[in-house]
Amino acid sequence: MPLLDVNDLTTYFHTRNGVVRAVDGVSFQLEEGETLGIVGESGSGKSVTCMSMLGLIPQPPGRIERGTAHFDGTDLLHCSPKELQTIRGRRIAMIFQDPMTSLNPYLRIEDQLIEPLLIHGLANKASAKKQALAMLDAVGIQDAASRIRGYPHEFSGGMRQRVMIAMALITKPDVLIADEPTTALDVTVQAQVLELIKKEQEVLGMAVILVTHDLGVVSGFCDRINVMYGGKIVESGPTKDIFYKPQHPYNRALQNSIPALQAKGKKLYTIPGMPPDMSKPSDGCSFAPRCEHATDLCTSEPPELQDIGQAHTTACLRVQRENLKP
Amino acid sequence: MSDAYLQINNLKTHFPVEKGILFRKVTGTVKAVDGVSLSLAKGEVLGLVGESGCGKSTLGRTVLQLIKPTEGTVTLGDRTLTDLGGKELRSARADFQMIFQDPYASLNPRMTVYSMLAEAIQVHRKVPKADLAGAVGSLMEKVGLAARFMRKYPHEFSGGQRQRIAIARALAVEPKLIIADEPVSALDVSIQAQILNLLSDLTREMELTMIFISHDLSVVKHISDRIAVMYLGRIVEIGPATEVFEHPQHPYTKALCSAVPMPDPDSERTRKRILLPGDPPSPLNPPSGCTFHPRCPHAEERCQAAWPSFESLKNNAHEAACVRLAELNQ
Questions:
Q1: Are strands A313-314 and A306-307 parallel, antiparallel or unpaired?
Q2: How far apart are CA B35 and CA B234, in angstroms?
Q3: How far is B275 from chain A, CA to nearest CA, in Å?
Q4: pLDDT digits over A32-74, tens only?
Q5: Which of A215, A264, A270 sits opposite B194 (nearest CB)?
Q6: b/e for A216-248, b at 16 or more Cβ within 10 A?
Q7: pTM of the model
Q8: Fewest 10 Å CB contacts: which of A178, A262, A265, B77?
Q9: What does the alpha-carbon distance between residue B183 and residue B185 come to, in Å, rounded to a whole number?
Q10: Cα distance between residue B290 and residue A89, in whole Å
Q11: Contact A243/B196, CB-based, under 8 Å?
Q12: Cα angle vertex B248, ends B251, A195, to 5°?
């Protein structure tokens, strides 16, 4: 049985300008110790997926319309807030994109680090402080004994993200959800932070969900990847298949448009058009208006994720029925 | 280079750090740009790469005289911009424009596209009112926007379209030099490529000279003829784009290239990454000698002594500032 089993998760935002279908029927599983990447452009619903599971969606305007998310026997979407609180932060921890705004500027690092342990009743204050110090040391903050008395503004961006990681990992969670953990950081610091998450994952044996828009980051880090577009998973599979045997036209186009992989001097490959307006429902595939392979079928019938072999699924009707090849 | 169009000579921008409320005194200086010399030929695109805080944006702004330099000169064509003031500078500004990173912040939310572009056109060109709409329309079409959108406000456009508006606004005065400060960093991958293609076409068509500032080496590689790598206020390596990207010589450039994650699982899992320890140091209190030495995996004692001079190994335009350059690149 998978550790986390998300089924038909659907989150809509009811705004003045209509219903925004941010996440529309997303299903995936996460095994113990596995690293899953969720990739997509801004507005594709990758962050909302993760926040829905942890009850972090502001309601209203957000509403989880349907679906289940079973974690170790508990449905995260339908359990009581109290039950969710015993899981969130303790067994499933989350780190966010912006380490500048996700730490409390008024509290010492130490007080923020021991908070998860105290709230969940995992340690008394003295032993929590000891664990906090050990954790801060483990995430590579030099001179941790004195830095732990400092405030967030005394830390650089990379160090703050290390503090965030320490705070997330201090309860030894089973799942770490990292939402764009390195996007705000410089590349040399990004490499350090990714290395750190990987090291801690090996030590604690936890599963990691890495949410990012950067295909480069997931390629070396994840076992499996979900590619999201327009609130849906359009392709899912082992990392190598996603990169070397991309099936869905969006996944193919996305990879072709990465500047790093294209030869200099030629025109860059681009995907025409713009990401879809999520408040306007489409009858067919949401990528159809930008897809070079789209036919009448694509605009009339919504595609479903279907297995195309070796745990590789894709939601493109033409790939499924007509064996469309790149 | 004698045929240089833009000549930057030993440019320094220092910011004083003050303390106290009533009796303010200077307690230190942030050397954001500390002795940069560059020259660009007409129509050349120079990519300027570096991490946050290395002074690349300050350099861009200083070149355009948005910040007054502490020392050094900037010459554009036959005019020395650093000597100009007031009216002269304002009329000179028609020759150089800037494109900013965040198209959500750089456009006035209360102005329509038409009024934004028309204002820019009128400031520097004399266009009769009757012809304004036509001029705005052709400007919008140049950057790939339909002219019928000219009465819309910025919030009605997506990020990529807003960046096109910002580009159109910069082009409105028919500039000769453009400084683009991270113009694609706020955009999604699929939109990034569109904007890069647009900028690349425009520079060719209009013979624009451009400094393209970015933290992303792979983006810079595409659009630039040459790349300059900056670290803590100074340029550490400069050369032809593919040379710098494929055969970096300075230890910092090497680390920077190796830190960029590649969307290729096999090579990503096997290649050796040069992990730099720590963060870039504060420009308020930079290390002695080569400012990179505390993080450099190859640093020796002599690296702390003095800032190394530029050397060229292959006797071409590819230069780097490292005392151990020859022995590290054998």
A1: antiparallel
A2: 6
A3: 7
A4: 999 999 998 888 888 899 999 988 888 888 889 999 999 988 8
A5: A270
A6: bbbbbbbebbbbbbbbbbbbbbbbbbbbebbbb
A7: 0.83
A8: A265
A9: 6
A10: 44
A11: no
A12: 60
